[in-house]
Specification:
Elements: E1 5-11, E2 16-22, H1 24-34, H2 38-55, E3 63-70, E4 76-82, E5 86-91, H3 107-111, E6 115-122, E7 129-134, H4 141-150, E8 156-165, E9 168-179, H5 185-196, H6 201-206, H7 211-219, E10 224-231, E11 233-234, H8 240-249, H9 252-260, E12 265-268, E13 275-278, H10 280-290
Parallel strand pairs: 5-11
Antiparallel strand pairs: 1-2, 1-10, 2-9, 3-4, 3-6, 4-5, 6-7, 8-9, 12-13
Bound molecules: zinc ion (ZN).
Zinc ion binds at residues 236, 238, 269, 271-272, 274.
Length: 295
């Protein structure tokens, strides 16, 4: 299997820029860690592909997080992407599986169309940037395009796709294309024409289409350059120190009760399902650290 990666491209005239990503391996890793059923896997994969493409437009050390929240059984999709290529994600209910519609997995029914998409960007400034929009179709790609148009005011085309069959996830990826100001309407019309005839992404990627081939399809004979190629991979930011800080943030009183028991306390990271166990003795040490110092 090919490793996951992202390309960033721009037309020579600077009118259009975009990213295209392959995230099959990362999604398989998440599906294994979270024990995802097919529909949650497709939903998370679409969000992951969109997140990877948006992270590719950031600058060094910047991080983007997408949170889709809906009134369906999946409840939420959370994904995070770093400009350096690290990706992670989780869903509310990994087994939410509404009945398929005409043989297709129903992502919109799983997430629920009544809800919001919240985008948080840590750009290294004091306060992270946050934007929220109502969900559009809850099919993920359209919601991201709507967010970019409404909240960031950048006309954007977003396409994300995940292929699944009886063997599991066959492919996952996507692209984002943005029109830079001053917007060239004629060029957008031309490119929209190319976008309309692109077959479903899930099938293309499963057949071996690369991000480079996607860029060539989108921009056709419009001159463009590939500015960057970078690997994408699963990576979580959790470690024992971070989990200890989370425990301390819950309050010393609760920790003291757990420390007084006989059973170890287990904390599971939401993004990677890594388990961290704390014995009552270790919790007692944490309680001591969390106590205000004696005067
Ligand atoms: Zn983790």
């Amino acid at each position: 299997m090919r490793d996951d990666y992202l390309i960033k491209f721009m037309t020579r005239d600077g009118a259009l820029r975009g990213t295209a990503a392959l995230v099959t391996g990362t999604l398989r890793e998440l599906a294994r860690r979270h024990d995802l059923s097919p529909t949650p896997a497709v939903a998370l994969g679409r969000a992951l592909a969109g997140c990877a493409c948006l992270a590719g437009l950031l600058k060094d050390d910047q991080v983007i997080a997408l949170k889709f929240e809906g009134n369906g059984p999946l409840r939420r999709i959370m994904v995070e992407g770093e400009h350096g290529g690290a990706l992670r994600g989780a869903v509310g209910d990994p087994h939410a599986e509404p009945p398929p519609v005409a043989g297709r997995l129903d992502v919109a029914a799983a997430l629920g169309t009544d809800g919001t998409l919240t985008v948080t960007k840590d750009l290294g400034l004091k306060t992270p940037y946050t934007g929220t929009v109502a969900l559009d179709t809850a099919e993920i790609g359209e919601d991201l395009a709507w967010y970019l148009a409404d909240s960031e005011q950048i006309p954007s085309a977003v396409s994300v796709g995940v292929g699944v069959d009886a063997t599991g996830i066959t492919a996952a990826g996507g692209f984002i294309l943005q029109a830079m100001p001053p917007v060239d309407e004629a060029l957008i019309d031309e490119v929209m024409g190319h976008l309309r005839v692109i077959p479903p992404l899930s099938g293309l990627l499963a057949a071996g289409e690369t991000p480079e081939m996607l860029a060539a399809r989108i921009l056709a004979d419009h001159p463009y350059e590939i500015l960057e190629i970078r690997p994408l991979f699963f990576s979580c930011t959790c470690d024992r120190d971070r989990i200890e800080r989370v425990l301390l943030s819950l309050g010393v009183d609760g920790l003291r009760r757990l420390a007084a028991g006989n059973e170890p306390t287990e904390v599971i990271c939401e993004f990677c399902r890594e388990r961290y166990a704390f014995t009552p003795g270790e919790l007692a040490v944490l309680v001591a650290q969390g106590e205000p110092p004696l005067e």
